[in-house]
Write the structure tokens for this entry.
Amino acid sequence: MNLHHREILKRIKQNSGTPTKHTFSDSYLGNEHPRYPISNPVLRGVLKEWMKEHRELSVNDFTKLLTSLFEGASSTEKSTAGMLLDYATPEQKQFNPKIFDLWLNHVIGWVEVDTLCTSKYTSTEITAQWKPWRALLIVVKKQKHSKAKSLHGASLRTLTKTR
């Protein structure tokens, strides 16, 4: 686990309780990942504060943090990564879009996919870097493995958000 990931998770735990799994929520949200009982406004407040303290984080370190969060065990960690994209500096957003393909392999269900694909990041950066994004979205659309349905949906939501 990335050091920054550990620091963010500690703050999430301080503002929530024990991670839970609920059958109803699992089927509604589309995955069985545990979730920390923390409201979105509280979680976003924690993340805004953390990002203000880490404005100097390089694009490379920011990308490593996001990757670590997407690889995390809980749905909260995965959603946190997508939310952090909303608070990133312009410099931190300059990572290679191909990393989204890796990240999409770690998200399951509409909540995790949407948090990644419908952030403020996608609505500004995709049009600014259209050529590499177009190539990535075409590759995602053509994937034939078990997550193809989620990945295809992710590419459609991402494109819809940017248009």
Summary: DSSP finds ten helices and no strands in the chain. The radius of gyration is 15 Å. The chain has one domain: 3-162. Residues 15 and 38 are 7 Å apart (CA to CA).
